[in-house]
Amino acid sequence: MFALSARHRRRVLVADLISTAVFPLAITGSTAVVPAVTGGLPGADALGPWIVLAYNGLFAAALLLAGALADRSARTRFFAIGNVVVAATGFASALAPDLVSLVALRAVAGIGAAMCAAGGSSMLLAVYPPEQRRRVYGYAGAVLGSSLALGPLIAQALIAAGGWPLVFVAPGAVATVAALSTLTLPGLRSPAVSENFDGVGAALFGATVATAVTALGLGFGAGIPWWVPVALLLAAVVSAIRLVRVERRAPDPAIPIGLLRIPAYRAYALATGAFMGMLVVTLAVLPRLGSAQGIGAGEAAAVLSLLTVPSTLLPLLAARIARRWARPLVTTALLTCAVTAVVLQATNRPAALLLAAAVIGLCLGLTQGVPDGQALHYVPFERGGAGAALFSTTRMSLETFTLAAATGLMAALGPSSGMAVAGAVCLIAALAVRKAVPSRDARSQPGTPGTDTSGQATRR
Length: 460
Hints:
Elements: H1 6-40, H2 50-71, H3 75-93, H4 99-127, H5 130-162, H6 165-180, H7 199-218, H8 227-249, H9 257-260, H10 263-293, H11 297-308, H12 310-313, H13 315-346, H14 350-367, H15 370-376, H16 384-413, H17 416-436, H18 441-444
Helix pairs in contact: 1-2, 1-4, 1-5, 1-6, 2-4, 2-7, 2-16, 3-4, 3-6, 4-16, 5-11, 5-13, 5-15, 7-8, 7-16, 10-11, 10-13, 10-14, 10-15, 10-16, 10-17, 11-14, 13-14, 13-15, 13-17, 16-17
């Protein structure tokens, strides 16, 4: 672990928090502008959802590779380069001449965002000891929640002020600040990391995620031959099988196998993905259901506020509750989200939409950053980038798969079916956490510095 002064550690944290604020704004903001962009740029309307899916898919596909590279490079420089990519693609997106160009730029932005996320986590885990990580990720959860809550509102304000291009310029400007904030910080390059690099495994993982996301996103919508998504799913399966074979033989696998053997780590990663999937699907579904019911602008704003504001107000409280009750907090919130999704299959009256937004918003706010802090307690600093990237990859992959599957199902069965997909994922995640995490997980986790990936105490 790198011994930095308290001032430099705070600068590392601030830089990561600034960059963290960009990510939800990039997702929720782009989700909000899909109708305006689709109507304003030439190109097929079917490309609209891919403004979000391309970003999410490439983010998930590139995270594992980005994490491995972050651990093998100067962490702060790697982080800064990622923010420069995000900034450049954000500014370029505002000038995109058509939907195809915009989707391509969003895909590159997803790669840059993966570098930011992996580099930021690698920095944090390299300078903060395990006993301080829950507090650090409590701050990250508060920033993430605030950005998630304010993202749609900021997007609407930016659209009103200067049109949809500003929604892409704003994250680019914030990413520029994050990159500049790393100036004069130490590089944080770790000489102890093995030079062996499983590039084939990382590439196969990215190919698996990318093809699966594309297949689910296409679904069986109008104009799409049935064999196209089927062929892509088969390609994803073949790539996954090949990935398993490569990882078994690799001396230094791209996927940190030791972490995957920890049930709590796996379960909390699944829970985080389920929560994020519920959020993005709900942001896409509730406005459509409300429009079908003819709700006014005031009720629509209330739905959005109830869904997002708790994520601004509650993360620090959630971090305190999680010190003793992380497992019941997470499982209860997941089960509640699943039940709410079931209710929305039976009714989509305005009162039900308001109640659903309030319940889901409360569940998301009270768990913001909790699974992250619990799971990343296990990650040794020298594999911080890879360990955090694996966690984020699981989260983003599940979030992206959930959104892609919901998008495909909604095209065939209507908006409420998207909530059924998100609810089913939450139910599976709740059962996984309940089974894998001890009932007193907050106390049974390793709580002293020097914990390896198997959970056994080691000397530093």
